[in-house]
Each structure stands twice: as C-alpha cells, then as structure tokens.
Amino acid sequence: MTARPQNVHQARLLRLLRDEGPRSRAELGDVVRLSRSKLAVELDRLVELGLVETAGLAASRGGRRSGIVRLSPRLRFVAFDIGATSIDVAVTNGELEVLGHVSEPCAVREGATVVLDRALDLLGKLRDQGLIPQVHGTGIGVPGPVSFRDGMPVAPPIMPGWDRFPVREAIGQELGCPVLVDNDVNIMALGELHAGLARSVDDFMLVKIGTGVGCGIVVGGAIYRGVSGSAGDIGHIRVDDDGPLCACGNTGCLEAYFSGAALARDATAEARAGRSPRLAALLESAGEITARDVAEAAAAGDPAAVALIRAGGRHVGQVLAGLVSFFNPGLVIIAGGVAGLGHTLLAEIRSVVYRRSLPLATGNLPIVLSELAGTAGVIGGARLISDHVFATA
Amino acid sequence: MTARPQNVHQARLLRLLRDEGPRSRAELGDVVRLSRSKLAVELDRLVELGLVETAGLAASRGGRRSGIVRLSPRLRFVAFDIGATSIDVAVTNGELEVLGHVSEPCAVREGATVVLDRALDLLGKLRDQGLIPQVHGTGIGVPGPVSFRDGMPVAPPIMPGWDRFPVREAIGQELGCPVLVDNDVNIMALGELHAGLARSVDDFMLVKIGTGVGCGIVVGGAIYRGVSGSAGDIGHIRVDDDGPLCACGNTGCLEAYFSGAALARDATAEARAGRSPRLAALLESAGEITARDVAEAAAAGDPAAVALIRAGGRHVGQVLAGLVSFFNPGLVIIAGGVAGLGHTLLAEIRSVVYRRSLPLATGNLPIVLSELAGTAGVIGGARLISDHVFATA
User: Fold this and answer.
1) Do B179 and B208 sit in the same domain of this protein?
2) Band of the pLDDT at A67, cuts 50, 70, 90?
3) Which Pfam families match (chains A, B) (predicted)?
C-alpha cells in the first residue's frame, strides 16, 4: 500500500520537494513556517514512511550546516495518456521527471479491455528496463468525458465499449496502487502547470486541437471540472447556425468547422476539386489525406492548405474570443496534433481573439503554442496522481 | 475601527452565525470541532470585540442547557448598488437581513462625486430612521469593470468621470469603515449565493440583462474575477459577424443584438415601421419606447413585442449555450431589468441552451429567473463586505 502523509505539514513538504527539488532543512523550515523541532518530527515521519530521505549537508548559511532532504529516489508514478489513436505510457520519479516513456498507435475504439491491456504491456516494457521498483500511483487520461469521482468514462462519444468501464478500479487492482482517471485535456493542462509554460500561472486555458477540440481549465492552480465533469468541452460550441452538419446532430459546431477530422475532410474536398495539385497527388498515392499531410503541404507553401489552416484558426479564434471575455485567463496554450500546424494557425487565432475579446481581458494575455509536445499528458497524469498521493487521506 | 476576528476559528464562528443565525454553544462546537473550553475562549474574545453576544439558554440536549450565541444586534453593514440609471442603498444587520432599503433613479454618467454624494444622502435617510448605530463595513457595486484590489472602476464604458476614481478610499474616509468595491453583477451573484436560488450551489452563473449584459461567475462558492477583473464581461461576445454594429466597434456582439438599449432601439423601429400599433401609440405619446414598455406590450399580447423578446432570448441563449458547455455550472440565474420580460424570455433562452449545449452539461442544469428582484445587489454588497470583516485581517 502506498504511504500517504498524515497531516497538512507533511503534505506541504512533499509537494514542495516534488516541485522545487531537494532542499535543506533550513530552507524547508522557512517555507512551511514550522519550528526546527516540529519540522524534524514531520520529516522523521516522512522518512519512516519511505517517502523522503536525507542526503548530506547543505552549504552553511552562517551557522551549523543544515541537512539536505529529498524525496525518496525509489518513488515512482505511472501515467497512461490514452488518445483517440495513440497511447503513451511513462514512469516518473517523485519530482515527476520522466524516466521512461513509450508510445504507440492504438485506436481507443477497440474498447477498454484491449486498450488497457496494451497500456499494461507498454508498462511491462518499462518495468523490464528496471525503471519501476514499485508504483506509488497511476494517473490516467482518456479522450472523453469522465466521472472523476467514479474513475470511469461516462457516455464518451468516440470511445465505444468504455461507457462506465471501471478504469480506476481495474488498473488499481492490477497495479496495487492509487489510480485517478481524468479527461486527456485536463491532464495536459496539469502537465503545462507542472512543467510547461503555465508554471507560474494560476488561471489559464489549454486548448487541444486534435481529432476533436477540447479545453482544460485551471482555476487557482487546480483543474476546474464543472458540476458534472464536462467543463471545457468546447468542441460543440456554435460558430454559426448555417455551418456544416456536426456528428452531434447540430450544425455549425466548432468541431464541424475545424478539428483533425474536419481538416482531413476539407483537404480531401480541395484535392478532388483540383484546387491543390499537391494534396491531389497525396490523395492519389495514399488514398487519404490526414491533418498531418495538410500541415506538410502548408509548410511547403501549398496555398489551399494554408487557406484551410487560416480558416480553421479563424473559427477557433471566434470561439476562444468569447471564452476569453468570459473567463479572463492569464494564459491560453494551444496544443494537440493539429497545433503542429504551428504559427500560421496561431497567428490566425491570435488575430481574432485580440480583435474580438474584451480589451481588458487581452491586455496582458499571451496566446502560445505548447512547448511540451508529446509529454504534457504523461507529466500531467503523474502530477494528478502525485497531488492525490501527496495529500492527507 | 471595525473589530475583526483574530484567528480562523473566530472567523468561522462569525460566518456560521451570519449564515445560520443564533446557535447554541453545543451546536457551534459540533460544527467548528473545538473543545468546549477552546470554543469558550474564542467566543469570549468575540464578545469582548463586540461582535457576538450571548442570549439565554437553549433547550436541553440531555445534559446541562447550552447557552445561545448570536451576532451582536448592533452590527450593521451598508450596501450601495449603483446601476446605470438607479441607485440602491440598504443597511443590514450581521445576518445580512435588510433593515432598510431606499432606491431612486440616478444616472451613473453624472460622475462619481454626484452619484456617491447621492448615495450618502440616501444613507442619511436610513440613519435618520435610527437604523444605523454604527457602520461595520460597506460593500459597493458599480456598473462597469473594477480593479477589486484598488477599489476603483477602471476604464468603465458607461461611467464617464469614474475612471480610477478612488471609490473605496473616498467612502471609507467618509464612513470610517472597511469598504470593498466590485462590479454590480458580481455583487448580485453574491446576493443569490447568500439569499437566493444559489444558496446551496458552489458553481453557478448569474446573467444580468439590463442596460447592458453581464455575468457573475461563482466558482467553489466565491466570485471568480479573472486575472484582470473582467471575467464575466459577456456583452461583447460575438453572436454573428454580420450582426448590428456595436458601440464597441465590432459587429454582432450580444449587446448589439439584445440589451435594454437594443430592445428599445428595435421596438422603436417596429413602431415606426407600423408593425405594432400599440408600440406606435406609446412612441407617439411618450416620445420614446423603453424596454419596460416592450415588456408591458408583450404581456398585453402585442405580437411584435413578443417577437422581439423571443429573438433576444434566442441570441442570449446562443451565447449562454457555449458558456454552459465551457463552464458546466450547477445553475444559471437570469436577472436584471430586462429579465422582467419574464417567462417568454426564459423559455427562449432555455430552448436554445438545452438544444445547443453539451447534454452532459445540461442534464441537471436549472435555468431560472432570479427571485430576489431588486435586492440581490444590496444583499450581495453586504455579503461582500461581511466576508471581509468576518475574516482574519
């Protein structure tokens, strides 16, 4: 059984050592405002629990040299980042540094049993490398709505076979550790909060543009999930009543205008209509066009591809402009596969948001591309479960 | 100087007595989880500070009868709710019950000095009635963006002469008590949280449709203001690029489609175009048509007026649908002068939100009209300042 801190002081010390790395007792005492003797009691208890260890002496600050304290180097958190078409498994130490990370294509629509077995297989590879003496907790992200409390997906549209599948319970039994399950966009936002551009930002939005479009919302340094866990599900916000028909049955939803799927659809239409010889050649040779192909065509200067990305950015911007006025965040991060479309997309999003949002809300608002690329999800998964393990039960 | 609690236990006791009314020592001990002797120490100190008093004995719960404790009946909070065209001043006791409330028309555009003098005059009337032995704190709402930290409006569009006027400082000096200043929609949301339909709801939105359109956002039982204090400023969210020109310079903003001002504009156009004999007669006799006139015409069955209100509700609903998908609140309250348009408006808003928001987000989502009518703002103003006074300094 994973040890947990026994009071708020211990929890605070663990999170501090996780986020700031090894610290001297003197430095820790300054931050947590405990007397030297009380601090020693709490640290001794954390050492007994196997969560913390002492590691030599710090340089003198004038008096006696203070002992260095760090998280146990045997601590391990595991993260599963399950996407629509891929699966990432990683293991981190207590400071959430990624020690091993494997990724492979995997269709989430193959169902919970198949996909989770694959995740456990991938974890086995990391185990075989000797990276995982013990698992202290596992954080899991899935590409759909999740009942966070119950640890299971609820009516997820692109995950047949997953509805109310007890993911937390199944993986918890398998690995014998605490497990939390959340939406993939939420764990990406946690990754950005821990190791990305949002490290010092309390209130921000992470917009993931991939197969679909979703948004992770952080308020006061914590994920905001809403009353039924669906907060940030922005893919079906209306851009225009007269827009394309959406899979949800409405017309003109953001995802119907722009997402990996919509981009592939529109690029195929451009190719068939003879408006892009490059895309037409791709369609001819591969039989299909993906969002990645459009990105490559745009990078090579194909005007039709650039126009599609610009139009997509404009529609994302129209929705984000309203959300920025409403939420007044300190940062907007654009991430996900389609964000690989890069600066053309970003420029268009920025242009619309800066023009259409309230000036007060955009005065100091950076809108940036994620710099964590493929690791935001797994770092966020580890952060999610470490927040739980490093809290009082 | 207003006394403040000296520790978190005292603060918790004060808020409990404010929200739940008089309680026996035994009941208080159960809630705050203090030993009988520690509770006695904290209560004694609150009595010394003049914030609390004892009031007889409770019925026996089996053993010795426990003493009843209540907030001092001499506690008074003052609230100024300054709207675009009206001013409300009220005084409450410590439990935030309104003891006196005066309201009169007043144009905020007359500037800070004129309007605040008027507010102080109105307060004088309440004082003359003997209602205010002492003021322990004042909460002020104004119809524009506010720097909450600085206690002043910042670049408020409809408040000429108020930009960076030190409202908190001016009123604090005048009344010799703590003062907080916030946006009028935020204090209405606090009023609903304290005494309205949101009493047991942690995360909700209050949408005020008056001269303009704004939204108060409550997250985890507290106002969410955003990083620059403009959160909830939804009046300029885009409904449609091809819509009417807005005062902000963009086209198709929500307020350009629907607000008290837009409704008066559209009703005047209907009257002039001969599409509503009733509105035409009103225009003829009064020289102008107000939103209230439209409400009355609709109530009397005027088809043009009903159509205007329906169209307005549809546009509000289109914006709210997106915000509900994003924020996933537990409740949406519609309030403000135009909300007096009542159930026709509400039905249209509901219809669009329930159709266009994510089903998960609307499954258990009530969308309701405020039941506090004109008192949400002043109760919220009192709540705002009492949260401050009943907290450790």
Assistant:
1) no
2) confident
3) ROK (PF00480)
pLDDT, one tens digit per residue, over B46-73 is: 999 999 998 877 676 676 777 899 999 9
Q: How many angstroms separate the CA atoms of B337 and B264, rounded?
A: 13
Question: Are A360 and B154 inside 8 Å of each other by CB?
Answer: yes
A267 is in which domain, residue-wise? Answer: 199-371
Tell me, yes or no, whether B23 lies in a domain: yes
Both structure tokens of B296: 């009355």
DSSP helix, strand, coil percent of chain A (3-state; round to 5): 45, 20, 35
Please report the sign of the dihedral spanned by the C-alpha atoms of residue B267, residue B273, residue B277, residue B281. Answer: positive
Q: Pick left, alpha or beta for residue B326 (phi over 0 → left; psi -120 to 50 → alpha; otherwise beta).
A: alpha
Q: Is the pLDDT of residue B339 over 70?
A: no
Q: At CB < 8 Å, which residues of chain A contact B?
A: 145, 154-155, 202-203, 215, 217, 219, 224-234, 236-238, 240, 250, 318-319, 321-323, 325-330, 355-356, 358, 360-361, 363-364
CA distance B181 to B3: 20
CATH classification at residue B272: 3.30.420.40
Q: Are residues A236 and A382 in the same domain?
A: no
Provide residues of B within 8 Å CB-CB of chain A. 145, 154-155, 202-203, 215, 217, 219, 224-234, 236-238, 240, 250, 318-319, 321-323, 325-330, 355-358, 360-361, 363-364
Asked if A217's CB is within 8 angstroms of B219's CB, the reply is: no
User: Residues of A with CB below 8 A from B357's CB?
Assistant: 236
Distance CA A135, CA A194 (A): 20
